[in-house]
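Per reviewer request, we include the raw input and output of the structure prediction for the construct analysed in the revised manuscript.
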Amino acid sequence: MTPAVVTGNVYDKYRTSNPLYRTMMRRFLASCRELLATVGGTRLLEVGCGPGDLARHLIATLPALAGRPYWGLDLGLGELAQARSYNPEKGFVQASAYRLPFPDGAFDCVLACEVFEHLDDPAAALAEVRRVASSHLLLSVPWEPLWRLLNLARGSYWRDLGNTPGHVQHYSRRAIRRLVAQRFEVVAERRPFPWTVLLARVAAPA
């Protein structure tokens, strides 16, 4: 049976008016943009694209992406409709991270930003990402336990000890590197507070 995927984007960090969170988002997006700019190739897949905010930002700020094939997938039909409206020249499909509807090695780079903390079986999803990735993975997760402490500091999710709804995995920086290293070789890391952003490449055969 395919494991459930729990989504929990309950705070709209892309459109917040909070100046602190806007600063944090600028740094997060700059880290993603900087790492992706180092990746060659022409075919990109974003797993867990949500309403297409990250895609819209990257396409607008990295001119090389404008002409590249860019696919996004998510479970929510409403979010996919929004993603298509933001990025009408790109492709968006409904699918699970556990069953990517693409052939082996179909993409030069797979993006999975703010996804793996929502997955019941991250190792299975990582294996599927590796199957379709011919070269690189760009991945981000919240940095725990700091993420939960920040939620508590702003008075959120007290009953859940600061855990954001839908977060079923809680990654320290060591833990997310260990997971990614099961299938990829980590080549760069950025630490925009309070996230961990990793760029990894397909590991050479042993």
